[in-house]
Amino acid sequence: MLEFTAAGRSFFDNEEGQDTMEYTLLLGFVALAAAAIFPVVTNNIKIIWQIASNHLSNAASAAK
Questions:
Q1: 12 inside domain
Q2: pLDDT in tens, 1-55
Q3: DSSP letter string over 1-58?
Q4: Does residue 55 lie within any of the structural domains?
Q5: How far apart are CA 56 and CA 64, in angstroms?
Q6: Which domain holds residue 55?
Q7: Neighbour tally for 48: CB within 10 Å
Q8: Which of 7, 55, 58, 61 is 20 to 30 Å from the Cα of 22, by its Cα?
């Protein structure tokens, strides 16, 4: 039982690889945030392109 306790304590005291895990969690958070923002951004880009297309169509019609 003493060996099991010592192994458990050694496992929890060992901080090797902690920074890698923190960067992994941070990367996951950034990926989730980007995924949440992506639909809003694509919709805004679509609206901007539609406005630009309308202006070009109106300019082409007026030039005829």
A1: no
A2: 667 777 767 766 766 777 888 889 999 999 999 888 888 888 889 999 999 999 9
A3: -HHHHHHHHHHHH--TTHHHHHHHHHHHHHHHHHHHHHHHHHHHHHHHHHHHHHHHHH
A4: yes
A5: 13
A6: 36-64
A7: 10
A8: 7
